[in-house]
Amino acid sequence: MRFIRLIYTALAVSLFFLFACNNAEIGNSGDVNPDAVYMDYRVAGYNDEEEVTVVLQFKYAGPFGTTLVLEPPSQVLFDGEALAVDSSRFSGAYYEIRLPLESFKGSHHISYTDLSGKKYEENFEFPFFHTVDSLPRTIQPVDFEFKIAGLAEEDSLHVVLTDTAWASRGIDTFQRVGKGQLVIPGGQLSALSRGPVHLEMVCNKDLPLQQTTREGGKLQLTYTLRHRFELKD
Fold first, then answer.
1. What contacts 214, CB < 8 A, 6 or more positions away?
2. What is the Cα–Cα distance from 43 to 231, expressed in whole angstroms?
3. Domain 26-125 has CATH 3.30.360
4. Phi then psi for 214, rounded to 5 degrees?
5. What pTM, to 2 d.p., does this model score?
6. Rounded CA gap, 80 and 101, in Å?
7. Which helix (H) or strand (E) holds 165?
8. pLDDT higher than threshold 60 for residue 4
9. Range(s) of the chain covered by CATH 2.60.40.1930
10. Please, which residues have CB within 8 angstroms of residue 55's CB and are 6 or more apart in sequence?
11. Over the stretch 100-144, which tens digit does the pLDDT of each residue have?
């Protein structure tokens, strides 16, 4: 019985630290020096979802600092639209907008005004890409070649393939786009279990902001192309 109590005690302590460490703090921008605000901008989309999600956060003293609610006259606009604050237990305070994927191509603009009225402007284009030809529904464990369009030669793709086998490690590689020709070697495909395979190609760009406070900031752009096929001998 004493042993069981010790197990429950250890479990309770572990859960306490788990939830304590995952509760994001929330503060007010009016309580901090405007130049100590870190700007954390994230934009993510998937080819098989209808919307792109834009999440903008402002944090005190760096990327892991307290998330901030902007106090007037401080505000943030995305493509000219003022965003309202939202919050969650794990993310803290954030500003979010979801926009249709189909109409998201082209240039976008983020405008942040700090408590003193100073503006910080950011312009970007989302890294959409696509396969030149439709990907097959069935492939064999031989070299799988296809072409990518829409990215620069210096860009890289995170390529992940997973099967349904519990013990399988799948395939997890990074490939430089180069001339747009991507190859998944047959030797790697042979290690996957035959049957359904899920393919993800992720273009992730972590970019420095064009205008920042002394504390700095980043812009993360992530677009994921997903495809499902059958692997057969």
1. 35, 36
2. 32
3. no
4. -60, -30
5. 0.86
6. 18
7. none
8. no
9. 130-205+224-231
10. 41, 42, 43, 44, 94, 95, 96
11. 999 999 999 999 999 999 999 999 999 999 999 999 999 999 999
